[in-house]
Amino acid sequence: MPAYEINWSYKGDKGPENWGHICSDFEIAQTGEKQSPVDIQTDDVKNIDGSPIDFHYTETNFTMKRVENSVHLFPHEKDQYVTFRDDKYTLQAFHAHMPSEHHLDGESYPIEWHFVHENARGEKLVIGAFMEVGTNISIDLTNVRRAFPEVFKDFGIERELTLNVDDFLPEEKAFFSYEGSLTTPPTVEGITWIVLKNRRVFGHVAHKALEKVIGGTNRPIQELNGRKITFHK
Ligand SMILES: [Zn+2]
Prior knowledge:
single chain, 233 residues, mainly beta, Carbonic Anhydrase II, ten-stranded mixed beta sheet, 4 helices, binds zinc ion, zinc ion binding, zinc, carbonate dehydratase activity
């Protein structure tokens, strides 16, 4: 299937409530019991001392291009990684959703970045990082917000950006973790989620610019179905 044929959407007949009926590959959106995103009730999490994750990001080059209903950034080299429970997960790509997909105690945030990693066995780990909008800006997204609309309007357009993923993550990296799914079709399960509790602050100009392109790209909250969420600080 060519990349420019998009057979799902965030509203209407092909919106999230109907993803499971679009084709057999997407059925798990309807039948799965470990779907994402979820609302993280912080009073219900299991607190665990010590962090099993280490981040290994450096400033590096990314290609930005449109993928389905969003804009994704792909690192040129597969040398950006995290270690989680002694397993190495390499960054494959990242993108954002607006507003956030995960909630904390019922609250959503203006944006949630998803950093998609994979280990040698092809198992995925996704880091979710919220951001808030404000004047005490702790990340400059000027280059990102300028390129976003340009690549979104045409599948053939690419932009090159130099970024450090660490700049997108809060300095204090306490996180929630649970087993879930991808949040876009096919919403396959078996995904290790790392959702950072703290948040960087980005500016109003960037917020407006990005929202024009990817506003409304959040899948509704899914049932936990007894899954336990852990909290690591
Ligand atoms: Zn995502």
